[in-house]
Write a structure and sequence with these properties.
about 140 residues; mainly alpha; three-stranded antiparallel β-sheet; rod-shaped
């Protein structure tokens, strides 16, 4: 509850102190411990502007709060959008990893099959070709690991 002296209330309303005192005496304006409250002034003078410094500060604080809430909501929206983008990127990377794992399994099977075929070829080849074929088998085994 904001309380003002009769003099300050009169200055804020742009009327004389005597007019305020008349309102108090007639019972149209309530007092509290010798002061008038801003709420009772607003009731007694509904068309008057009561822009006190405190009202201005309250308005400014409310504007700051509103601006902060707007910024907070903007940040939350941006974070939400970033999260969606990151989830999309993660899903894409998981798909790529899966495809690469499939390729890797295929290459492992190819190397295994190649090693088996080289062993069969080694059994059937001429003696002069066995050493070169043996080196090739060693190279294939080293590449597969």
């Amino acid at each position: 509850m904001i309380k003002l002296s009769v003099s300050k209330a009169a200055r804020m309303l742009g009327i004389s102190r005597i007019d305020i005192q008349a309102q108090i005496n007639s019972g149209k304006l309530q007092t509290h411990e010798g002061y008038v409250t801003v709420d009772s002034l607003r009731l007694a003078y509904p068309n008057a502007s009561l822009n006190s410094e405190q009202d201005d500060r309250l308005k400014k604080m409310q504007q700051i709060k509103d601006d902060a809430m707007f910024k907070s909501n903007s940040v939350a929206f941006a974070q939400s959008e970033n999260e969606k983008s990151l989830m999309s990127i993660v899903a894409s990377l998981k798909t790529k990893i899966y495809k690469e794992e499939i390729k890797n399994q295929h290459y492992e099977m190819v190397f295994e099959e190649l090693g088996e075929r080289l062993e069969v070829l080694e059994k059937c080849c001429h003696a002069q070709d066995k050493e070169a074929l043996h080196k090739l088998q060693g190279w294939v085994k080293n590449q597969a690991h």
